């Protein structure tokens, strides 16, 4: 069965026709939106590649039905840059060399944003814990954790006016 839903995606309002078994990840990446920055890996909730923000909280969009997102605000990786300028977390990932395979990176960056929005100065342990659901299968987490630390320091310096 198909139904119209209303969503705010990256600060734009949409009314979209969705199938009752369509996931949010499929909707984002599909022809109506073409937001392919959200990746699909396991489609089982295990890898975190499909992480987006729903009302500011990180969710695995492969586990959320599009209909469940009705009325909510979604942020994808495409929504982080503003006025042609990358978000500081995106810059930190580049500066730390943390954009490794690239496939898991959008989900990692959105997970980092959800963490720093509630805990602007996390310890390395807290960062590791936050990333439990985001798998890196290639080179490891060292640079990814460094990137989150760099982003947190940048945020703190900005707030201090440095
Ligand atoms: S694709 Fe959603 S958690 Fe892996
Ligand atoms: S950086 Fe993507 S799997 Fe490791």
Report the span from N to C terminus. Answer: 55 Å
- Assembly classification: single chain
Estimate percent helicity: 25-40%
Mean pLDDT: 95
Q: What does it look like?
A:
- There is one protein chain.
- With 162 residues, this protein is α+β, with helices and mostly antiparallel strands.
- It has two domains: 2-79, Roll (Ubiquitin-like (UB roll)), CATH 3.10.20; 88-159, DNA polymerase, domain 1, CATH 1.10.150.
- The chain is built from five helices and five strands; from the N terminus they run ββαβββαααα.
- It has helices at residues 24-29, 88-95, 105-118, 124-130, 142-159; strands at residues 2-9, 12-19, 51-54, 57-60, 73-75.
- A five-stranded mixed sheet has the order 2-1-5-3-4, with helices on one face.
- Strand 3 and strand 4 (57-60) form a beta hairpin.
- Helix 2 (88-95) packs across helix 5.
- The longest helix is centred in the C-terminal third of the chain and has 18 residues, at 142-159.
- The protein is globular.
- The N and C termini lie far apart (55 Å).
- The mean pLDDT is 95.
- Bound molecules: FE2/S2 (inorganic) cluster (2 copies).
């Amino acid at each position: 069965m198909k139904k119209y839903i209303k969503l705010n995606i990256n600060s734009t309002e949409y009314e979209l026709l969705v199938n009752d078994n369509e996931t949010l990840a499929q909707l984002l990446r599909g022809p109506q939106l073409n937001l392919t920055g959200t990746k699909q890996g396991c489609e089982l909730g295990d890898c975190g590649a499909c992480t987006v923000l729903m009302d500011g909280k990180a969710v695995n969009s492969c586990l959320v039905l599009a209909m469940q997102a009705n009325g909510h605000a979604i942020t994808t990786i495409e929504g982080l840059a503003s006025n042609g300028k990358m978000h500081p977390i995106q810059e930190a990932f580049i500066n730390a060399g943390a954009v490794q395979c690239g496939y898991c990176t959008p989900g990692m960056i959105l997970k980092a944003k959800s963490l720093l929005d509630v805990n602007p100065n996390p310890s390395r342990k807290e960062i590791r814990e936050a990333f439990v659901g985001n798998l890196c299968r290639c080179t490891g987490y060292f640079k990814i954790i460094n990137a989150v630390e760099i982003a947190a320091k940048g945020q703190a310096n900005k707030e201090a006016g440095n």
